[in-house]
Amino acid sequence: MVENDASRPVHPAAEHLSFGELVRQRRQRLLLTQEELAEKSGLSARSIQNIEAGRVRRPWRTTVDLLCTALGLDASDRETFDRTARLGRLAADRPRPTPADLEAVAVAVAHIHTALQLLSTVEHLTGRSTV
Hints:
single chain; mainly alpha; 434 Repressor (Amino-terminal Domain); disordered N terminus
């Protein structure tokens, strides 16, 4: 028999999970179906499906609160859920840099460093008078 261990906090290693993965993890720990969680939270089953599947990248604050209450989260777990939801919104707004992007930045920084070293050796600019 599977034990219902709803009181166990969200594991710290779970913080690398997406918001949808956290919701699914806690829902399964409570032995709830998506439909049961929908009923407890006041959200639709489709919303729960979309959240867990990662199709909802920017959950509304109200949605996060409803899910936290329905899942019976304590203050610490609520903070983890809130932070994960916020990070999901921020991450969704900007693309991840590719290795080529990072290499281009490294090359640009090296060029700037070289230029600054060269400029620091120049004491004056030819053809310019000081006033």
